[in-house]
Amino acid sequence: MTEQSPRRDPEAASVEVLRRRADNPGPMTLTGTNAYVLRDGRQCWVVDPGPRRADHLAELIRLSAGEDRRPMGVIVTHRHEDHADGAGTLRRQLEARSGRTVALWAADPQALPGAQPPPVALEGDSGLVADVISLPGHTADSIALLVQGGRLLTGDTLLGGSSTVIAPPDGSLTDYLQSLAILRAMALDGRISSIHPGHGEPIDSPTAALAAIEEAIAHREQRIEQVRAARAAGVLTLDRLIREIYGDELEGRLREAASWNLRAALEHLARTDR
């Protein structure tokens, strides 16, 4: 029988979670992409390195390979470039800096050259660092990490201060609602102490985390009802549907994002309203 690594008391929360925001603000990235460094003693893992920017990657290297630290792996929460573009470069630089092999993980390895599927959990020398949770919806390959102590790194499944985009065919509103239901059950069970999103600010209490999840569910259910009502009233084109629900103010990337979300709602209704 294989000996298992010891599982720590989640209340101990000895794993550090360090956040560094990339300088890539925009309509889709808010104030920029949040990269996270998990540190357990000397061992380190990097989550969502973000864009391939020399100064940003240098800071992640300083946090995870400096001062005799041991980089163990680089993991991305999903395929999008604002989270994953710097992952391969960071891994090579960490290996050169530390002189050790560094794992590269992605739920869809084909989206990130050299990557392998992630383990079900990140384990350090002394036990559990984080559980890896599959949460498809924003993308088919979206995952989250539940770090020791209940700190949930959500990638783009939940954002701080905004709703996420679901762009078919890779994104699925049906899958997203199921993933939110999983997160709600975890929060009600007391397993989530805080939310650390891919963009925006952290949500730092269990009560606020549950409220954010329930708000995301309510927002999607409201949008589904708006689309259902518009279709019943004879709104048949996507352009008119955007004007009906969002008004005439949206332009550029925001209008594009609205069209993706409405396509996702239409696909969801096609599956569920038969």
From TrEMBL:
Pfam families to which the protein is assigned, alphabetical: Lactamase_B
MF GO annotations: hydrolase activity
Transmembrane regions listed in the UniProt entry: none
Record keyword ATP-binding present: no
Domain Metallo-beta-lactamase: from-to ranges: 32-199
Signal sequence segment: none
Protein known as: Zn-dependent hydrolase
Superkingdom in the source lineage: Bacteria
Record flagged with keyword Lipid metabolism: no
Keywords: Hydrolase
